[in-house]
Design a protein that fits this description.
The protein is mostly beta strands. Helices cover 1% and strands 61% of the residues. The chain has one helix spanning 147-150; strands spanning 16-21, 23-27, 32-36, 55-60, 68-84, 91-110, 113-119, 176-177, 180-181, 184-194, 197-206, 215-226, 228-242, 247-260, 263-274, 287-295, 300-310, 326-337, 345-359, 365-378, 383-395, 399-402, 405-407, 410-422, 429-440, 443-457, 460-473, 478-492, 497-506, 511-523, 526-537, 550-561, 563-564. It has a 24-stranded antiparallel β-barrel. Strands 1-4 form a two-stranded antiparallel ribbon. It has a two-stranded antiparallel sheet with strand order 2-3.
């Protein structure tokens, strides 16, 4: 494998470059990782990606370059969508055509600072979102899949509770609304380093759609090393500005300090300001706070203690929040063992995890969880997780899970038992299996998930994901069964031609969603994509009677050519 130096951003001093290098090799049949330099196993798999453990190398006669890449694209396609007939309750197909053109530009401003510009970007080649079924009263989190927002996105990370996906900057707010797409006129991104500071700048302008005016989105991030090589301080500003004068602006300050050994103290503070609000910078109402003390190790004693608070007026329109106006205390204590060469076990760990959410206005307990857990990993690659969960939830407003199935208001206490088993992923056929059974509010739930993966050859891989939930509330005569099935196929027919297909079935939306992509890549920077998207309606009875089998369909052809100046 050859990596051109022109594609890398680095700083040289008269042709001399100091770089950090971590190299590792996985021997699949033995489930073994060989790493250079030697990295202690106490951090687990992610220890292989710790920059602080990299071996320094000095390269002579290497000079940085600042190339300018221009990548125009053209796209065309046709299809149909389903609309209600104007004069009655029936449906009809509306023909659609699509003709687009746009441009991407990448330029190295300095040896360590890159500018990306995009005009009328298109994401036809991006894989469809993974379908989800919501059995809670909170919004679902969908990860970003668009390359323009993915590339070097870690500089913009300003996350709070990782288990819920809460964050101050959530790039999926840009170019989407209520599940639909919003045209992006253009955008700019600049990431890299200026002096001792890591810098990230993002600005995007979107078009007006329906009753939503054209909007400007911005994210501006800085970070730098502080106190020691393992710590940082930073700040972020996000903006969402509408042409009609509405605005939402947020700022955040964060720091992660290595205190000693593997102990770290992390603190984050954010505030939001919006049109029509009181916007008091001295108030906790529009603010978000998080403080964490943790010991980061999988060997011996580890612990984690966190306090979070979100005020009543904290509303990051460019972020993601699952709850409002709450305080959270979360803690974990664990002890891990790495037995050594004579044991068949690679590691095992006992832990106790607890969390409590409290409503700020009256300090009442909203929800709480307690979960003792045991995890085991063998040297042959098997993994086992056992985790009973004890839950208390105070529901003040009932919520609907599905049609004719709901959870009424009330205080609930229930418990469940979970288990996960994973087979070695280095084998041609591997799988994961998880099950969860027990109480669910005033009823019960049984959940199971199967994730097989089959590498038929070096050029063909199949992945599956099937999840079933059986929920019943016997005292109220309500029950529900949901199914979510996914199949991915990836084929590398040659070094220039590849194909991918992603088919999903969601019983909650009663739909089969297909996304297939054929890519021809004759050389680096030249791509031809043929994309097929299809949505089929299932369960066409009752209130869905009259729906056509095909809800929507599109065939798209996209060509991109990259050249340098």
């Amino acid at each position: 494998m050859r990596i051109p130096f022109s594609s890398l951003r680095f700083q040289d001093v008269n042709g001399r470059v100091t770089m950090g290098l971590i190299a590792w090799r996985k021997i699949a049949r033995k489930e073994e990782f060989d790493a250079f330099p030697s990295i202690p196993p106490k951090w687990g798999f992610w220890g292989l990606f710790k920059p602080s453990r990299a071996q320094e190398f000095v390269l002579d006669g290497v000079y940085s370059r600042r190339p300018l890449y221009v990548a125009p694209y053209v796209l065309g396609g046709a299809g149909h969508s389903t609309e209600r007939t104007p004069a009655g309750p029936g449906y009809e197909h509306a023909r659609t055509t699509q003709r687009e053109a746009g441009l991407d530009l990448k330029h190295g401003l300095t040896s360590n600072l890159t500018l990306d510009l995009t005009v009328n970007p298109d994401f036809a080649q991006v894989e469809a979102d993974d379908q989800q079924i919501n059995l809670s009263r909170f919004s679902l989190f969908f990860p970003e899949k668009r390359l323009f927002f993915q590339e070097r996105s870690s500089i913009f990370d300003f996350n709070f509770e990782s288990s819920e996906g809460t964050r101050l900057f959530y790039s999926r707010r840009i170019g989407t609304d209520a599940g639909g797409l919003v045209r992006i006129y253009g955008g700019a991104r600049m990431v890299g380093r200026v002096g001792q500071w890591d810098v990230g700048v993002l600005n995007v302008q979107t078009a007006a759609i329906d009753d939503i005016p054209s909007e400007n989105f911005g994210a501006y991030r800085v970070k730098r090393q502080a106190f020691n090589p393992y710590s940082y301080v930073g700040g972020i500003v996000t903006t969402r500005l509408g042409r009609s004068g509405d605005y939402n602006v947020a700022y955040g300050l964060d720091s992660s300090i290595r205190l000693f050994g593997d102990d770290y103290l992390t603190a984050k503070w954010a505030q939001t300001f919006k049109d029509g609000a009181r916007n008091d910078p001295l108030s906790f109402d529009p603010a978000r706070l998080r403080v964490v003390w943790q010991r980061r190790t999988n060997k011996g004693l580890s612990y984690y203690g966190a306090y979070s608070r979100a005020g009543a007026d904290y509303e990051p329109d460019l972020g993601f929040e699952a709850r409002r106006d709450f305080s959270l205390v979360r803690s974990e204590v664990a002890y891990g063992w790495i037995p050594g060469d004579q044991s068949r076990l690679y590691s095992h760990q006992l832990s106790l995890i607890g969390a409590a959410y409290v409503r700020n206005p009256d300090a009442s307990l909203e929800s709480a969880e307690l979960s003792p857990q045991w995890s085991v990993k063998t040297k042959s690659g098997y993994e086992l997780y056992l985790f009973p969960i004890f839950t208390q939830d105070d529901i003040r407003e009932g919520f609907e899970i599905a049609e004719s199935v709901a959870v009424p208001s009330g205080r609930y206490q229930f418990a469940s038992m979970g288990i996960e088993v994973w087979t070695p992923d280095g084998r041609p056929l591997s799988t994961g299996l998880s099950m969860d059974a027990g109480g669910f509010y005033d009823g019960w739930r049984l959940s199971a998930r199967l994730l097989p993966r089959w590498s038929l050859s070096a050029d063909l891989q199949l992945q599956g994901d099937y999840r079933v939930n059986r929920i019943a509330f016997p005292d109220r005569g309500q029950e529900l069964t949901t199914h979510l099935a996914k199949v991915r196929v990836l084929s590398m027919m040659s070094t220039k031609l590849s194909a991918a297909a992603f088919v999903q079935y969601n019983s909650a939306t009663k739909a089969v969603i297909t996304n297939a992509r054929l890519r021809y890549n004759p050389r680096e920077g030249v791509d031809l994509y043929l994309v097929y998207n299809d949505v089929l309606n299932t369960g066409r009875t009752g209130g869905r009677a009259g729906l056509p089998v095909s809800d929507s369909r599109a065939v798209l052809l996209k060509y991109t050519y990259t050249f340098s100046l």
